[in-house]
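Researcher: We're teaching a course module on how sequence relates to structure. For the next exercise, students receive a sequence and then see the predicted structure as tokens, so they can try to spot secondary structure elements on their own. Here is the exercise chain.
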Amino acid sequence: MTNSRIAAVDVGNDSLKANFGKMESELYIPNVIARDVEDRPVIGIEELDEKDPIDNIHIRVHSPALKENNAIYRVGNLATKAHNSTELDPGSGKSEEDQTLVMLFASLALDAVSNEVGTKSNKNKQNMIDANYTLGTGLPLREVKEGKDVGYRSQLLGSVHQVEFLVTPRYQGKKVNIKFDEVKVYPEGFAAFINLVMDNDLNIINKDLIDRQILIQDIGGLSTDIAVIRNRNVDDDKAQGFNLGVAESLEAIREEIYTKHGVELDSRRDVVDIITRNNDRHHIMVKGSRTSVHDITDRILLELAKKQYRHLRNVWQRNSQSEICYFVGGGSAVLKDYLKSLNNNLDGFNIEFFEDSGESIWMMANAYYKLISDFIAKSEKAEKKEEQKVSSSK
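Model: And here is the predicted structure for the students to work with:
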């Protein structure tokens, strides 16, 4: 795996978060794509290279893993401006959507071109990069329990996936051939536990938690996982996944803001920003005037928080010896105030949130980095052992 670069990628329902190499490079891209045609107009084509590539990702993706092969996409911030942009729908499986793969391949290709990863195929093809990755990623617990991680992993391994940059600043015309030396797909709840107990160098940082029975409620855009951790492992029988995330509620808020105030927000990410930012929280600008949307956000989010709290209560009743529940994921950052209020007024469970919402949002990508690094370290140790055995037997 010496020529293989580490990629730890969390394709969240709201956004993609990724760590690369020795944690020297990271990417954050809103999980929005839009199908496109090749001749997209660019205003000020001569100024294209002065723009930020992250805000102008325009690619063609070729991969046998895709249902729609060779399609052209706008990705991330650029896609939010398109009328036909798509975000993952409630009820859809992350492992079965082209969108998940398009986001994954786009992030790896961006890392390859921006950090000159891989090798130029030959001197005649200066714009072609061959990039090898060892990937750590994850799927919701529900999908792993259904065995969908096996198919997801196999369609990534053993194939070459090509990303061609079209009208993208600095990278226009470049092609990246992505190959995976290894792919590890982790259940998201277990990943959250690893992140709580280990640092980036895989040292135990939270001895208190290791042998306790804890719950981890990971609220995402489309789904919620409640992992039951005991004896340092996820209890597969007790852990539960639900088709309940924040996406539908964010969409409802977005629609109601448009109906009531005539303000069209580009994506769910904009709604999250209104709810979680430090200044002017729950306010928007309407015709230049600062306007509260608290009535809309409170009503819709409280309703969702009640459903999430019901799930917590049911799982805790079946696992009564649990000592604490950690709320993680982007959805937890959105619902934190509502869940805390409900808990104070109702059961008073021992629950904890991460006060830094950024820490919660990056938790999965950081956990995958730790897990894939641990896997590589163990693999290299085993290889050395085998080499020593062979040389001593000669």
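Model: If you want an answer key for the exercise: The two ends are 25 Å apart (CA to CA). The chain has a mean pLDDT of 87.
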